Amino acid sequence: MNQVSPTLSQSLLAAARAIAAVENGQSLTETLSETPADLRPSAQALAFYAMRHWGEAIAIRRLLVQREPSSPVVGALIGLSLLLLDVAMQEDRNKLDSMAPVYTPHALVDQSVQATQLQRALINYKGLVNAVLRRFQRECAQIHAAIANDPEARWNHPMWWIRALQKAYPDQWQQLLQTANLHPPLTLRVNVSVTSREMVQDAFNQAGILATPFGDAGLVLQEPRPITSLPGYDQGWWSVQDAGAQLAAPLLGLKPGMRVLDACAAPGGKTAHMLELADVELTALDVDSKRLERVQSNLERLKLMRSGVRLVAESALRSHLWWDGVAFDAVLADVPCTASGIVRRHPDIRWLRRPQDIAQTAKLQRSILDSLWSVVAPGGKLLLVTCSIFPEEGEMQAQAFLQRHAQAQRLPAPGQLLPMQADDTNPAGRDGFFYALFVRRP
């Protein structure tokens, strides 16, 4: 059992602020970046756990709180504390999420109440938080019975999301929802332009770090660790990249001297992979100049910033502002999407998205693809990539593209890859991705 930290109340409050921000439409990544450094690790662990179980938290809170508090932070604190109290009261630990933070019920209630005293605007909610948690302790069994048939509480996804997966994947929707709540492994892609997977694995072994190879250049760590502490970080030996994302660059069949465009490039994982595979002339395009700075930072760490690499902060929709008129041999179109395939890594996504987002992103994707197709050379390739599992952002998008462009021919590519749990044959598992590859007929 974890010992109660003297800053548990502070961590609870920091996590509650992050959760409240998600409920207000802000991503966890963004809000946690604003959390004080000493609280960030504990707040992140608590907030991520809550997001994976937030459907249950909402259902329980709805039963116990007759009128939602005017403070979103208090509402989030109550939901988070209810989840943690439920964990604390479980006798069978085997039924729990392996990453569930475990405290004693007494300590959890005490520290949750104390959290309201750390901010002037929350002081008057001390009694409410105490009363709600005490009632849950008394009526836990009845409350669980009352929410047993609530789909959002059971699957911890919004109802519209559940229905969308039921429609698209009638035989697999339950597995997809379950997989979304698993903890992803730490997967790396070895930078084969500066080292080999065998050399990296040897360095890890010497440091007592177990890593299993997969794919052409992948490694999956048995236990996640801070990435900057791993051998070879400063030397640029590897990048963090999901197994599904590592399939993108090889599909383009890159050769030295090719003229390549990586549209929507940030944060630069696929950009780097293409440069590792071949000495190409590459333009990395992204509308967000701040995110493009991250691309440059990654390329510099990997020793890939060289002549022939150009970073451009501009929209893919406005090619007249960045294209020099010379067509590209290969275009990687990792277009914006709902990110529904990567919710195991970003559990807040399911609570940030709205039903209308699918149609809106699909419309944006169409516009971007049509714009990028105009810069593809005859005989050149365009690779459509999304980290989505909604068909509107995948197969339906690819088919509509073919209907709009008579010169496009579809080539073999993986198509829709659903999120996969790790097993003996796939030690890294993978997130959900969609791939469609097109060539422009001469």
Automatic annotation (TrEMBL):
<dbReference type="InterPro" id="IPR029063">
    <property type="entry name" value="SAM-dependent_MTases_sf"/>
</dbReference>
<feature type="domain" description="SAM-dependent MTase RsmB/NOP-type">
    <location>
        <begin position="176"/>
        <end position="441"/>
    </location>
</feature>
<dbReference type="InterPro" id="IPR018314">
    <property type="entry name" value="RsmB/NOL1/NOP2-like_CS"/>
</dbReference>
<keyword id="KW-0808">Transferase</keyword>
<keyword id="KW-0694">RNA-binding</keyword>
<dbReference type="InterPro" id="IPR049560">
    <property type="entry name" value="MeTrfase_RsmB-F_NOP2_cat"/>
</dbReference>
<keyword id="KW-0949">S-adenosyl-L-methionine</keyword>
<dbReference type="InterPro" id="IPR001678">
    <property type="entry name" value="MeTrfase_RsmB-F_NOP2_dom"/>
</dbReference>
<dbReference type="Pfam" id="PF01189">
    <property type="entry name" value="Methyltr_RsmB-F"/>
</dbReference>
<dbReference type="GO" id="GO:0003723">
    <property type="term" value="F:RNA binding"/>
</dbReference>
<feature type="binding site">
    <location>
        <position position="334"/>
    </location>
    <ligand>
        <name>S-adenosyl-L-methionine</name>
    </ligand>
</feature>
<feature type="binding site">
    <location>
        <begin position="264"/>
        <end position="270"/>
    </location>
    <ligand>
        <name>S-adenosyl-L-methionine</name>
    </ligand>
</feature>
<dbReference type="InterPro" id="IPR004573">
    <property type="entry name" value="rRNA_ssu_MeTfrase_B"/>
</dbReference>
<keyword id="KW-0489">Methyltransferase</keyword>
<dbReference type="Pfam" id="PF22458">
    <property type="entry name" value="RsmF-B_ferredox"/>
</dbReference>
<protein>
    <submittedName>
        <fullName>16S rRNA (Cytosine(967)-C(5))-methyltransferase RsmB</fullName>
        <ecNumber>2.1.1.176</ecNumber>
    </submittedName>
</protein>
<feature type="binding site">
    <location>
        <position position="286"/>
    </location>
    <ligand>
        <name>S-adenosyl-L-methionine</name>
    </ligand>
</feature>
<dbReference type="GO" id="GO:0008649">
    <property type="term" value="F:rRNA methyltransferase activity"/>
</dbReference>
<dbReference type="InterPro" id="IPR054728">
    <property type="entry name" value="RsmB-like_ferredoxin"/>
</dbReference>
<feature type="active site" description="Nucleophile">
    <location>
        <position position="387"/>
    </location>
</feature>
<dbReference type="InterPro" id="IPR023267">
    <property type="entry name" value="RCMT"/>
</dbReference>
<dbReference type="InterPro" id="IPR035926">
    <property type="entry name" value="NusB-like_sf"/>
</dbReference>
<comment type="similarity">
    <text>Belongs to the class I-like SAM-binding methyltransferase superfamily. RsmB/NOP family.</text>
</comment>
